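Troubleshooting log. The previous run stalled partway through. Resubmitting the same two chains, unchanged.
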Amino acid sequence: EDQVTQSPEALRLQEGESSSLNCSYTVSGLRGLFWYRQDPGKGPEFLFTLYSAGEEKEKERLKATLTKKESFLHITAPKPEDSATYLCAVKIAGSARQLTFGSGTQLTVLP
Amino acid sequence: DAGVIQSPRHEVTEMGQEVTLRCKPISGHDYLFWYRQTMMRGLELLIYFNNNVPIDDSGMPEDRFSAKMPNASFSTLKIQPSEPRDSAVYFCASGKGGANYGYTFGSGTRLTVV
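Second attempt completed without errors. Output:
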C-alpha cells in the first residue's frame, strides 16, 4: 500500500537552531515529491518539487533533498516566521489521484 | 493575480441542510482540485477536474457529495444532506498541466455541521 509518513509530528526549535524534517514514502512509482508550507487558517503554499534521488532545491533558509526512500526538509538558522506546518506530498506513477499528502510536521520556532 | 478564491470562508449549518461551497480558480489553470482537511485524516483529495471535466471522483465520500465545474472560472462542491462528520476545512486548488508542479490553494472554507 502506498504510504507517506512525516516525522516528527511536532518540533519546537529555538531561533537559530537548525534541524530537519523527514518525509518517508513507500509508493509503487514516484513521479514527484512536493513540499508545502501551511500557516494557520490558510491553504498550503507550494515550496518545492523534487523528481529524482539526489536532487536538491533551496529557498532562503530551506533546503529539500530526496533519496529513494525519503525526503528531508532542512531548516538552517530558523526564525519565528518559519513557524508553520510543513506538508509533503507524492505523485504516484499511474495514479489518477494526483497528490497524496502526509500528515505534516508542525514547526514552532521560539524567539 | 487574486489567487484561488473560495467562498464562504466559514459556514455553520444544521444537520440535514444543503451546503454549497464555491471556488474561482486562477485564470488559465486547466486543473481544479477539491480537498478536505481534518485533524484525523489530514488532506484528502475528493475530486479533480481537467478542462472542466471531472476526471477522478473516487475520493468523494458518498453520494451526498457532488461537484460541478460549469465553466473554467467556477466550481462548486455541494453536500446534501449535510452531517456532523462532514465538518472539516474544504480547500480548492488549481494548476496548469499535469501534477508535476505546485498547485495553488485557496484559503479554504471551514464547514461546521451541528
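Takeaways: The interface with chain B takes residues 31-32, 34, 36, 41-47, 49, 51, 87, 89, 91, 96-104 of chain A (CB under 8 Å). Chain A has a mean pLDDT of 93.
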